[in-house]
Amino acid sequence: MGRAQRLLTGGALFVCSAVALSAPLTSGCQGHQCDGDFKAMDFVNPSDPTLTQDHGDLIDRDTYETGPIRSPWLYFPHQRTWTINPVGLGGRTISEILPYVSPASEPVNSGNSDNFTVGSGNIAEVRLRFEDNAVVVYNNTCADYYLRVVVHAAPESDAGSAAGAGPPSPLEDAAADGGDGASR
Is the pTM of this model over 0.70? Predict the structure, then answer.
């Protein structure tokens, strides 16, 4: 092995060793750097029933949103848990929860037009608390985002009203005709 080749091999070994030894020294979510907090939305304050924190609205009688798409979204920093009471849905069965996340507080109005996505994985861990129909969204990362949540509930039943029943789904319609609903 020549001198140049030994220098190259020794240099490469030095660089690899330096990288391997510095890895444990890098910062990440260690200690209290990523301690989270909890926020609630649209729950009555027990000490003053007239106060609530933040406020979402119904888009229609079956859909709740934490705020309009063209407004500031909820701050969703690392390790934050938002517990949301979708007021106006009357305790009906929740059929869909859509958490949207963005690095911008107003993704549609900030010049970052439509800079948002449906949150999934650790960025937006979603669960439904069945005992009170609350939606819980947790940012299980060390990154800060903004959050908008849209919650759909099962339609209110119009018992005995054919006018309120709406058209049959394609599967119901096919089953009525003796088919299995599959496309042919």
Answer: no
